[in-house]
């Protein structure tokens, strides 16, 4: 199932609770696809940077080569927020009257830690990576941070484009109003009173500058939203453990994603207790089956792939290659 998804989609997201195996499985799937000759980009949006731990090397926010056909990068939230804030501050400096500069700086300092700022910045980076990634690669695989955060992130493009749209409309209204006042003032001294002569021109330039920036942002978010909501291009894979709460949380995450128009096309049940390894594991295996019955009943049409708990941790390329082979061999499941 995993390999089929990797073959048929352009963008795959792996999500789920902490520690279930998102990083390991997304990386192994990306590797399995790269081994078939595809060009694959593996991107971590998780602040914890565990892609580097998994490959046992430094990765960072610039694209590096991880294996033949497989590149990777880790989006760094702090750095992303910093760059994002610098860009906004620079544009505002250009667009606002010079005497407001210190106000702008004060405002931006406060905004840095505002709720949602980190998500907005990461989302903007995801949009950039997706835009470029689908051009340069056959497949872009995202390893995401634990669920709550990710579900919010996936519906954010919708919110952000609605928000920018609102701003644009408000600006347009303000523009029209300004035009009317300017028109009224043509034969009188009103124009001077309201704008001053030079002020009228620089105001106009500022307005069109701001509108250009807002339009660009809106386009970026609507493009991302359209791409994420297109099941031909994008799928979300939920990774989980075969336990009671994770199963219930998976059903809930699926609902949130569906509400956000994101298509969930794969469930990976990881770290399953192996069979034929003694009575303790046999008992656990049977218990897992009952939990998975709940899962299948709630989400009957989503393909599922189970992976057994392996005896060792999965660290480094050779271990990942092994898992990639397991995923390949399991692909008919
Ligand atoms: N099938 C498996 N068998 C044995 N160990 C596994 C298996 N899958 C993952 N692991 C191990 O479980 C640990 C957690 O895996 P991983 O980092 O991929 O989870 P994650 O969901 O990305 O975690 P986080 O939410 O912290 O990002 C790692 O030590 C990994 O080696
Ligand atoms: Mg991880």
With helices defined by DSSP (H or I, 4 residues minimum), what is the helix count? 12
CATH architecture label name of the largest domain? 3-Layer(aba) Sandwich
Structure classification? alpha/beta
Strands side by side in the biggest sheet: 3-4-2-5-1-6-7-8
CATH superfamily of the largest domain: P-loop containing nucleotide triphosphate hydrolases
The CATH class label of the largest domain is Alpha Beta
> Can you summarize the main beta sheet?
8 strands, mixed
Radius of gyration: 25 Å
The arrangement of helices and strands along the chain is: HEHEHEEHHHEHHHEHEHEH
What oligomeric state do these chains adopt? single chain
The chain-level mean pLDDT equals: 84
How many distinct beta strands? Answer: 8
Separation, N- and C-terminal Cα atoms: 6 Å
Give the DSSP E fraction (strand runs of 2 or more residues).
Answer: 5-15%
Overall tally of domains: 2
CATH topology of the largest domain: Rossmann fold
Description:
The protein is an alpha/beta fold and 333 residues long. It folds into two domains: 2-80 and 119-157 and 232-329, P-loop containing nucleotide triphosphate hydrolases (Rossmann fold, 3-Layer(aba) Sandwich); 162-223. It is 61% helix and 14% strand. The chain contains twelve helices and eight strands. An eight-stranded mixed β-sheet has the order 3-4-2-5-1-6-7-8, sandwiched between helices. Strand 6 (234-241), helix 10 (244-259) and strand 7 form a beta-alpha-beta unit. The longest helix is centred in the middle third of the chain and has 38 residues, at 147-184. It is elongated and about 85 Å long. The structure holds adenosine-5'-triphosphate (ATP) and magnesium ion. Adenosine-5'-triphosphate (ATP) binds next to helix 2 and strand 7.
